């Protein structure tokens, strides 16, 4: 994690401190930033808490070289959508200067925290990473009864998997950070523009090259249905085995039958499975279809401990996890040819 400069800032309003003290009566122990380093009473500089890893990572890049410190609320090793924190999360958010979230209907716990702050007139700034971004309709296979989905009026929230939509969220985050620290506007906007042009556009081009090189336009996922934006952006059919928005180990018999047909019709040898999801659906696919192995994908919803140690963010995960797997499952490369040395052995049917 990049260290940022810290400077003194205005003390938080006593109203916020009082509410935070009340929330603190609940159990604590929530993880701080992705490295595991939480705030301490002596820390200075405005603090932004983020409800989701991808936007935490965008924000820390944009904030580099400013007094702003960004913290990821989702503990290491957990998926940012399926995670359900205890009520102490409210204290972390209230004590921060800004709360970076994904918009309503995606993380019910974040929605509840925002409502609590509104009810109690808390002055924590809200930064909506999804503001003004066009969303795709939910795929027909998705379970619309899942908690939170109805609030999105039939829209798929996983927009950040499309690099061009991700750039729009970076703009939203940058605007929020500028509002938080106007004196740092030049640095914040320069960081954002450089990140979008030198990193996000490169990711987009790299993905495009992978899908353009493929003879097959179908990817079978043992993972949950989070990759529709990848399919739409690069004109490939994403076939999820788990047909809901959150990571889950539940597989319906008809979904297995459909996956068997897709794998047979497209001569698929390898499938993709979510890093932070149950392995049972993937193992079931391997046992009941022609597929030989599964390899990792992630919607950038969380981080593993070894990724934290390597300081991986959105870009590093794209290049080291998702791109090699798409190369393999599309048949562009063998597992031994994809990724850095030893990648195929490490990630083949990973535990």
UniProtKB/TrEMBL annotation:
Domain of life: Archaea
PROSITE patterns xref list: PROKAR_LIPOPROTEIN, TAT
GO biological process, one term: metal ion transport
Keyword terms: Signal, Transport
Record-linked Pfam families: ZnuA
Record Gene3D superfamilies: Nitrogenase molybdenum iron protein domain
Claim: Transport is one of the keywords in the record: yes
GO molecular function, one term: metal ion binding
Similarity field: Belongs to the bacterial solute-binding protein 9 family.
Protein's name according to its UniProt entry: Zinc transport system substrate-binding protein
UniProt source species: Halolamina pelagica
């Amino acid at each position: 994690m990049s260290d940022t400069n810290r400077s003194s800032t205005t003390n938080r309003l006593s109203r916020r401190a009082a509410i935070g003290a009340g929330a603190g009566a609940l159990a604590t122990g929530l993880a701080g930033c992705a490295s595991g380093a939480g705030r301490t009473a002596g820390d200075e500089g405005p603090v932004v808490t983020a409800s989701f890893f991808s936007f935490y990572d965008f924000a820390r890049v944009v904030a580099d070289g400013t007094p702003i410190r960004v913290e990821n609320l989702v503990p290491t090793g957990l998926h940012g959508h399926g995670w359900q924190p205890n009520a102490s999360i409210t204290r972390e958010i209230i004590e921060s200067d800004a709360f970076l979230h994904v918009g309503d209907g995606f993380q019910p716990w974040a929605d509840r925290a925002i409502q609590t702050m509104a009810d109690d007139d808390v002055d924590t700034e809200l930064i909506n990473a999804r503001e003004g971004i066009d969303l795709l309709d939910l795929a027909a296979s998705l379970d619309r009864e899942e908690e939170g989905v109805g609030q999105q009026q039939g829209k798929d929230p996983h927009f950040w998997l499309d690099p061009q939509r991700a750039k729009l969220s970076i703009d939203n985050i940058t605007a929020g950070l500028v509002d938080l620290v106007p004196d740092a506007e030049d640095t914040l906007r320069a960081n954002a523009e450089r990140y979008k042009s030198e990193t996000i556009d490169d990711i987009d081009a790299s993905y495009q090259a992978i899908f353009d090189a493929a003879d097959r336009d179908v990817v079978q996922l043992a993972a949950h249905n989070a990759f529709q934006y990848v399919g739409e952006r690069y004109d490939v059919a994403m076939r999820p085995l788990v047909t809901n928005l959150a990571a889950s180990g539940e597989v319906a018999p008809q979904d297995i039958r459909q996956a068997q047909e897709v794998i047979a019709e497209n001569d698929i040898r390898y499938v993709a499975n979510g890093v932070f999801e149950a392995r049972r659906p993937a193992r079931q696919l391997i046992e009941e279809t022609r597929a030989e192995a599964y390899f990792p994908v992630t919607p950038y919803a969380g981080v593993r401990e070894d990724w934290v140690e390597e300081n991986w963010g959105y870009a590093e995960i794209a290049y080291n996890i998702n791109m090699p797997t798409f190369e393999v499952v599309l048949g562009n490369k063998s597992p031994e040819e994809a990724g850095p040395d030893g990648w195929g052995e490490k990630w083949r049917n990973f535990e």
